[in-house]
Design a protein that fits this description.
Length: about 180
Amino acid sequence: MSHSLSIDALAAAGVTEVSAPDLLSPLLQAPTSQRAGAAEPLGLIVGELIALTDEGRTPLVLYPGQPGHAALPARTVIDLHGAHIGRHVTLMFEGADPDRPIVMGVLRDVAGWPLPDRPGAVEVDADGERLVVSAQESLVLRCGKASITLTKAGKVLIEGAYVLSRSSGVNRIKGGAVQLN
């Protein structure tokens, strides 16, 4: 049964006025499988994160009933890490296309926290003037060739192609020993 309506067919049938609902009703009443190019929505599926490629930007996933046997590249709405590899993930599909999965989340284990060690705390004061960042071993601020590293042992390492220390008041260098060059 064809559900197409053309202007010529309507004119031949003596129809002079047709509203939009009249034109769309045969399409809306047709079963999904009869609509041209329509696919059954896959809904939410639980799959497995197999690997991360492209320096961690592209997840590879497997899910039950997927086309082919190889892992599929997916997009993601969450940050995925190496610790998530092998974990169950929730997947949805762009345009209901089973070849275009999108990772929506990582299912939690009974233990709760998905990573082996909870990351250091980040604390922001309410007044917005102070930011405290904590790390367990070291903290690195990096921009191009310049970096500032703070270590657990109390070392502060400043590296760069050009380092300037300037002060409108006293610029004091204090230490058990001071070495220049």
